[in-house]
């Protein structure tokens, strides 16, 4: 049966950041079974050694009152013992494994070696995804300009980009190399970070007994700005008291902006199974839920464009995907992200009409006209602390662009950084002259014309 959101989609205009998941009051509210939690406790003590009750609960990101009954059960079963404590109560008891508990922990490790924050149920993850979907994100020209302020774009570009962001659908950015396709895609990601609010992701979720890790510190940026739960000191007190706190199994992050290029292959779009530990890592595109997934240099991946697009043709249409575990069982997950395809190649040479129809927005970025080129050139000069020289630009057009070389926006940066390097090498103040641009362009451009 298809999973459906149990809460309405957030009204982004009035509340750009979704409500944080609340800490569970009971094991049932946590969505975990007693058998799972007892195994998790045994594994944790087996790997980390004897633990204080509060440290054990905090490591698993659960309130102690949720863990208490499982600890009592394991103690009654003579799997753990109390080595000490003080008058604070069970939260300060020091728990260690008995010989029986060690054997059971070893058996549990063979079944699954995952230790760390307790997973959330798949259903809770799905519900949270629908609360923080990219679809319907508010976007207006004035709010869109700031993330694009470092780029020189024609006004019609904003007319094309804004509706694409609001739709939350896929975007195809195409055009000759060196004209800012990747920079534009990253600017869209910056807009999502600044205007889209934060989102919440779990460390891991559990589906039919299978643990899938989601949080990736190399891709997800934690948003540590103050929230309605207060500062860190207040949050620590609430965690200890287990009242009014956020569910610590979730992290508040900036909307992810994940970039992949020629290294992308089909295997990266499937669950990655750790055969020794018996749990899974979510695929790379799954980690982009709630944010942006940029496929740069589309058409140059390790797999063919047709294979890649066939893999995504239904998720793009239906906004959900399926993940398959090692026994062949599939479970449905949200596909809630803005996918951006960026390519230097002709889209008609890469995909057929059926797929182009599913990509709602196509944005062509062509070579800059001279007026735009001069603005980009001046902008780079300012960034490098260099004077602007109209003679330098005039030389480039006389020598190259008027003779068949197509101007690229990236030429401005590349040429001026060469000029900067020449000046530094000669121990001269960084400045721009016609002679210096002649020298820089001779090594950068001439050999290719």
- Give me the number of helical elements: 17
Instruction: Give the class-level CATH name of the largest domain.
Output: Alpha Beta
Give the oligomeric state.
Answer: single chain
Query: Shape, please?
Result: elongated
The CATH homology group name of the largest domain: P-loop containing nucleotide triphosphate hydrolases
Percent of residues in helices = 40-55%
CATH topology of the largest domain: Rossmann fold
Offer a few descriptive terms.
449 residues, 3 domains, WH_DNA-bd_sf, DNA binding, five-stranded mixed sheet, disordered N terminus, 17 strands, Arc Repressor Mutant, subunit A, five-stranded parallel sheet, Rossmann fold, P-loop_NTPase, 15% strand, alpha/beta
Give structural notes.
This is Putative ATPase with chaperone activity, associated with Flp pilus assembly. Keywords: DNA-binding. One of its GO terms (molecular function) is DNA binding. The chain is an alpha/beta fold and 449 residues long. The protein has 3 domains: 84 residues, Orthogonal Bundle (Arc Repressor Mutant, subunit A), CATH 1.10.10; 243 residues, P-loop containing nucleotide triphosphate hydrolases (Rossmann fold, 3-Layer(aba) Sandwich), CATH 3.40.50; 79 residues. The protein has 17 helices and 17 strands. The strands form 5 sheets. The chain has a 5-stranded mixed sheet. A 5-stranded parallel sheet has the order 10-13-16-5-17, with helices on one face. Strands 1-3-2 form a 3-stranded antiparallel sheet. A hairpin with a 4-residue loop joins β11 and β12.
């Amino acid at each position: 049966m298809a999973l459906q959101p149990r809460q309405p989609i957030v009204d982004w205009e009035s509340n750009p950041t979704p409500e944080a998941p609340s800490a569970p009051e009971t094991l049932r509210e946590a969505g975990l079974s007693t058998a799972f939690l007892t195994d998790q406790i045994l594994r944790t003590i087996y790997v980390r050694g004897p633990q204080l009750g509060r440290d054990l609960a905090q490591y698993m990101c659960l309130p102690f009152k949720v863990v208490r009954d499982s600890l009592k059960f394991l103690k009654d079963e003579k799997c753990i013992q109390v080595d000490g404590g003080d008058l604070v109560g069970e939260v300060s008891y020091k728990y260690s494994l008995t010989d029986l508990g060690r054997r059971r922990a070893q058996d549990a490790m063979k079944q699954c070696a995952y230790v760390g924050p307790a997973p959330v149920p798949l259903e809770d993850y799905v519900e949270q995804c629908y609360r923080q979907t990219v679809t319907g994100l508010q976007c207006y020209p004035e709010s869109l300009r700031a993330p694009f302020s470092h780029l020189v774009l024609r006004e019609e570009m904003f007319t094309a980009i804004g509706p694409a962001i609001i739709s939350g659908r896929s975007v195809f950015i195409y055009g000759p190399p060196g004209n800012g396709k990747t920079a534009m895609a990253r600017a869209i990601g910056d807009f999502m970070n600044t205007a889209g609010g934060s989102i919440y992701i779990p460390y891991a979720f559990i589906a039919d007994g299978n643990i899938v890790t989601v949080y990736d510190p190399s891709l997800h940026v934690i948003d540590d700005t103050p929230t309605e739960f207060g500062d860190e000191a207040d949050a620590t007190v609430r965690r200890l008291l287990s009242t009014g706190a956020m569910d610590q199994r979730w992290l508040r992050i900036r909307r992810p902006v994940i970039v992949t290029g020629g290294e992308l292959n089909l295997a990266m779009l499937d669950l990655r199974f750790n055969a020794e530990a018996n749990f899974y890592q979510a695929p790379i595109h799954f980690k982009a839920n709630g944010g942006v997934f940029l496929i740069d240099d589309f058409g140059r991946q390790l797999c063919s464009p047709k294979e890649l697009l066939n893999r995504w043709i239904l998720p793009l249409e239906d906004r959900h995907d399926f993940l398959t575990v090692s026994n062949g069982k599939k479970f449905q997950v949200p596909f809630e992200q803005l996918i951006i395809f960026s390519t230097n190649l002709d889209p008609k040479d890469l995909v057929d009409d059926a797929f182009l129809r599913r990509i709602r927005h196509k944005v062509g970025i062509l070579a800059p006209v001279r007026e735009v080129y001069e603005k980009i050139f001046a902008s780079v000069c300012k960034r490098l602390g260099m004077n602007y020289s109209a003679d330098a630009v005039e030389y480039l057009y006389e020598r190259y662009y008027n003779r068949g070389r197509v101007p690229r926006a990236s030429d401005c940066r590349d040429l001026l950084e060469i000029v900067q390097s020449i000046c530094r090498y000669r121990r001269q103040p960084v400045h721009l002259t016609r002679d210096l641009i002649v020298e820089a362009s001779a090594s950068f451009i001439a050999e290719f014309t």
